[in-house]
């Protein structure tokens, strides 16, 4: 089953962005409006993911988010993988913040 994919620069500004990276990656730099649910916690926390709107899923480079998006689609959610992950997000100049207030980067 193929997973729908979108380039980072094409993700709508008002999208529900789900970041499935680990905590240290998240803390280093993430999109300001993203919701953080590490991939290993996604099945247990799936009720935090909208059922009535597209979910754009991101990780570091796109592998984990593709798995997450595939699973979400299998259970009836509308999930789209962000191709190239946060590396592409950063390269596209999309906004990023860090938990420490330091200059955000993709860990």
From TrEMBL:
Among PROSITE patterns, the record links this protein to: RHODANESE_3
What the entry lists under InterPro entries is as follows: GlpE_sulfurtransferase, Rhodanese-like_dom, Rhodanese-like_dom_sf
Q: Which GO terms describe its molecular function?
A: transferase activity
Q: Which CDD domains match?
A: RHOD
Q: Which UniProt keywords apply?
A: Transferase
Residues annotated as domain Rhodanese: 11-98
Coiled coil located at which positions? none
Name the UniProt record assigns to this protein? Rhodanese-related sulfurtransferase
